[in-house]
Specification:
five-stranded antiparallel beta sheet; Immunoglobulin-like; 11% helix; 3 helices; mainly beta; single chain
């Protein structure tokens, strides 16, 4: 059974001599106005099925995505740490691409969020551990102007299970430097056990799980200069692997393509723009 918990209230408890009492208090949730911008932010969440605190991280990520419809993209990175399948019936969410990406980041533990691959000045690590603060760093990234538009155009052949992808990048300003393009393939609605803080495991719906990449793990060369209104186009073909019974089945309806451009001249190769599209709309 999928384990979900959403509270709109909390229990306030007080203790007196010989008496204790609890009273339910309503939580006032302030209204949130999503930013008006063409910028789209990438959050890579370092997570794992035997990480008991990771469901809280995934919930925080989902909230940020929901509050910023179309402006925030999430990717679940199940690398080597805390990601071993819980039992023989579990699906293995790890893959070499996820392991290599996770190993490229410095972080203290899981869950951790990598936001546009930016190392924020008040953080010792690029991986930010406290999910309650992730939205604040997303807000900081929204203060940057959008420099580029990225549009993935997808055609999927159900018979051959082949994805044909064109990614179009259009400059919103003059861009100089060394830029890479990365294309990820993620999958949602994967049900497999996950540990919770009570040290029990539940059937859990894992979303945005990184399954593979159409580019190299750390991207392919994109351009070194692109003038305002300049356009670059990139084409890729990918055939879904055969299901092996160990890793999750490849369900085309649950797959998304995530394309992003990063400036490799900056520390940690800052992502300047991202975009996503479903393999099947």
């Amino acid at each position: 059974m999928t384990h979900f918990l959403k509270n709109l209230s909390y229990v306030f408890c007080v203790s007196f001599i010989g008496l204790s009492a609890c009273q339910e208090k309503m939580v006032v949730i302030p209204e949130y106005d999503p930013p008006i911008t063409e910028k789209v932010i990438l959050i890579e969440e370092l997570t794992g099925v035997i990480c008991s605190q990771c469901p809280a991280g995934s919930a925080a990520l989902e909230k940020i995505i929901e509050q910023n419809q179309g402006k925030v993209i999430g990717v679940g990175i199940h690398g080597a740490l805390l990601s071993d399948p819980i039992n023989d019936d579990s699906k293995d969410l790890r893959n070499q691409v996820a392991i290599d990406i996770e190993n490229s980041f410095d972080f203290l533990g899981k869950p951790a969020a990598i936001i546009n691959r930016v190392r924020f000045s008040d953080q010792s690590f690029i991986g930010i551990n406290s999910p309650s603060t992730w939205a604040d760093y997303v807000t900081q990234e929204f203060l940057r102007d959008a420099e580029l538009l990225v549009t993935p155009i997808i055609a999927y052949d159900e018979d051959t299970r082949t994805i044909q992808l064109e990614v179009i990048a259009k400059a919103l300003t003059d861009l100089e430097g060394t830029y890479n393009i990365s294309v990820m393939l993620t999958q949602s609605q994967i049900v497999t056990p996950q540990y919770y803080p009570d040290h029990t495991d539940y059937e859990y719906v894992h979303n945005h799980v990184l399954r593979d990449m159409l580019t190299g793990t750390f991207g392919d060369p994109a351009f070194t200069q692109l003038s305002f209104d300049g356009v670059k186009s990139f084409n890729y073909t990918y055939t879904l692997p055969e299901d092996d019974g160990v890793t999750p089945d490849w369900v085309a309806e649950d797959l998304e393509i995530i394309a992003f451009i990063s400036n490799v001249d900056t520390e940690d190769s800052r992502v300047i723009q991202a975009s996503t599209n479903h393999v099947i709309e």
